[in-house]
Design brief:
The structure holds 2 protein chains of 2 kinds. Chain A is an alpha+beta fold. Chain A is built from 4 helices and 3 strands. A 3-stranded antiparallel beta sheet of chain A has the order 1-3-2. In chain A, strand 2 and strand 3 form a beta hairpin. Among the domains of chain B are: about 80-155, no CATH class; about 180-325. Chain B has helices at about 1-15, 20-40, 50-60, 60-65, 80-110, 110-115, 120-150, 155-160, 180-200, 220-240, 245-270, 280-300, 300-325; strands spanning about 205, 210-215, 275-280. The longest helix of chain B is centred in the middle third of the chain and has 33 residues, at about 120-150. The relative contact order of chain B is 0.06. The chains are: A alpha+beta, B mainly alpha. Chains A and B meet through helix 2, helix 3 and strand 3 of A and helix 2 of B.
Chain lengths: ~110, ~325
């Protein structure tokens, strides 16, 4: 029983670790078009990359602090929403990350 | 939406002032959008229980707020193992001797007991309280130094600049250095020779000005220690030829140390010093000195037992390690 619990806990930790690295890339890629937080979450969830609010908003703030995103508050549907999009630096970094991702994917496919 | 407002207010409390409003506005917008989506899906307003369930899923306010805060630590992962190691050294080399000295003084010094509350329990309470204060100060000082190191630089210089050649050699714990065996052999041969020459009879000193006589039971101690010295010589000799602990040599060492410690404890309690005759002071003073020495030997029993137990623990650990290997 303990072994099963350990295995499932180890799987859960590894799965989270695997996802954590991919999430930033997915968020940057999705923000090639302007989105506000909730719409971004819905887009990502529709494409199989569900992300909860406690992960997304801190991540958006980090990426913005790093200069990869720009944001502005605007009114939409009678409510103030914060819209995010890729900055110039963000576009360059996304390009590099995508190249890296493809390299990793190819290497991993060869290993698998 | 009273519940949601209360929730957002609680999250806000834990956030840094400069970002509070911004973060809470964004979180509020997200949660309201979730609620609206759910309401349009169900075709009715959400009940308070459903809103409550949504908030429970999002998480406790302090946890939600913590995700927005930078990761902070007093001592980082690079320094933490060294910090724990230093704390262990402080415990072994400072706190343990501190408490042992305190207990020793409590047992043997009436003056110390009087100065610390009078009775046994009061003095023990004072020592115990003092111990925790000392432990807290020691741990606090070590923590403060490491926290300062952590803050002082992102990576201390000694973690950055290092040379693999300066790493200590790998030590096989089951290997016995030949130097140790030679020293052990020499010490035991010298001891056994001295023991046979000077300690074989109860009259261990017989000069015109002073005579020291031991109790008749001394003969048992004489032979006991002589046999133990012979066993130690045999073990040291075997270790010299085969410089690794084996089950036999480790077991023999355990047995000899066990017997030696037990014998010493019995010796402490046996009023072994029968008479001391001094030419100057006469028999009365000599007897008083003999009695005083016997009394102090008897009082030394707890220390002798403590040291014996420590030695046996080391021997037992060695034996278990050899068996495991």
């Amino acid at each position: 029983m303990t072994h099963v619990t350990d295995t499932s806990s180890a799987y859960e930790n590894l799965r989270l670790e695997l996802r954590r690295g991919c999430l930033a890339l997915a968020v940057l890629a999705a923000l090639r078009a302007e989105q506000y937080g909730y719409s971004l979450r819905k887009i990502l969830a529709d494409r199989g990359m569900a992300i909860d609010e406690n992960t997304l908003y801190p991540l958006l703030r980090r990426l913005e602090t790093q200069g990869l995103l720009v944001s502005e508050w605007r009114e939409k549907d009678k409510r103030n929403k914060r819209f995010y999009r890729l900055s110039h630096d963000g576009k360059l970094v996304l390009k590099q990350l995508l190249a890296d991702w493809q390299g990793i994917n190819a290497s991993l496919s060869a290993v698998l | 939406m009273d519940l949601l407002d209360r929730y957002l207010h609680a999250v806000k409390f834990w956030l840094p002032k400069a970002q509070r409003q911004d973060i809470v506005s964004e979180l509020s917008e997200d949660i309201r959008s979730q609620i609206e989506d759910k309401e349009s899906e169900l075709g009715r307003a959400l009940t308070e229980a459903e809103i409550e369930a949504t908030l429970v899923r999002i998480g406790r306010p302090v946890l939600v707020a913590s995700r927005y805060l930078p990761q902070r630590h007093l001592i980082g992962p690079a320094l933490f193992p060294i910090y724990v190691f230093v704390l262990k050294i402080v415990t072994a080399c400072y706190l343990v001797p501190w408490i042992l000295v305190g207990i020793g003084l409590l047992l043997y010094s009436p003056g110390y007991r009087a100065a610390h509350g009078g009775g046994w329990f009061r003095a023990l309470g004072t020592i115990w309280g003092g111990f925790w204060m000392t432990a807290l100060v020691a741990a606090g000082a070590v923590t403060a130094v490491f926290a300062a190191l952590e803050r002082g630089a992102s990576k201390p210089e000694f973690l950055e600049n290092w040379n693999p050649r300066r790493l200590p050699p790998v030590r096989d714990p089951n290997r016995i250095p030949r130097g140790t065996s030679i020293l052990e052999l020499a010490v035991n041969i010298v001891f056994a020779s001295w023991w046979i020459l000077f300690m074989s009879t109860p009259t261990v000193l017989n000069r015109p000005d002073i005579q020291i006589t031991l109790a008749p039971g001394w003969i048992y101690f004489f032979w006991g220690y002589l046999i133990l010295a012979a066993a130690n010589i045999a073990t040291a000799g075997a270790n010299l030829l085969q410089p690794n602990w084996t089950r036999t040599t480790a077991g023999l060492r355990l047995v000899t140390n066990l017997c030696g410690s037990a014998l010493f404890c019995v010796l402490c309690q046996s009023d072994i010093l029968l008479t001391i005759s001094l030419a100057v002071d006469g028999a009365t003073n000599g007897q008083k000195i003999a009695d005083a020495i016997n009394m102090w030997a008897s009082r030394a029993l707890p220390f002798a037992a403590g040291v014996g137990l420590l030695v046996l623990a080391v021997d037992l650990r060695r034996l278990i390690r050899v068996k495991a290997a």
